[in-house]
Amino acid sequence: MSAVRSLARSSAVQALYQWQIGGKSLVEAEQVEFIQEHGKGVGDMEYFQDLLHGVQRHVAALDQTIGEFTDRPLAELDPVEQAILRLGTYELMHRPELPYRVTINECINLAKRYGATDGHKYVNGILDKVARKLRSVEVGAGGRKP
Fold first, then answer.
1. How far apart are CA 103 and CA 87, in angstroms?
2. Distance in angstroms (rounded) separating the CA atoms of residues 58 and 126
3. DSSP helix/strand/coil, 91
């Protein structure tokens, strides 16, 4: 687990949250809130941008996949958890070089840091199911790449 990748994920979750609830465009959240204010403080800038734009580009497919495993409509999820679930599902779908356990653990840590008291448990449960669907071979191999 890379510290700069962790920081990029953290920054991406904050920008996604602002995009979801603040009425800002994702580009505005990216430029104003993170690049100008934090500069290099977002960690791996290329990865940060991939997460932001990847989630935005694939949001319908991400939401459909997440929705298969939630107990309520996505619009009723806590916005922080929604941003984390979108980011985690994006990584599980589009970043196969990352072990699924890394993605889930990073998202649990983000939910503990930014989410509601037990939000990390919900995030863990949903992403575990998403991983079983999208990475069944890897999950079946105990997390080892086949």
1. 9
2. 18
3. helix
For residues 32 and 92, the model is more confident at 92
How far is 20 from 140, CA to CA, in rounded Å?
34
Measure the CA–CA gap between 114 and 84, rounded to whole angstroms: 9
In this predicted structure, the answer to whether residue 114 has a pLDDT above a threshold of 80 is yes
Q: Please answer whether residues 26 and 56 qualify as being in contact, where contact means their C-beta atoms are separated by less than 8 angstroms.
A: yes
Residue 138: closest CA among 109, 102, 110, 106? 102
96 and 128 in contact (C-beta within 8 Å)?
no
User: Domains plus CATH for the chain?
Assistant: 3-139 (1.10.940.10)
- For 68, other C-beta atoms within 10 Å of its C-beta total 11
CA atoms 1, 143, 123, 26: torsion sign = positive
Q: How confident is the model at residue 145 (pLDDT cuts 50, 70, 90)?
A: low
CA dihedral 60, 61, 65, 67 (to 10 degrees): 10
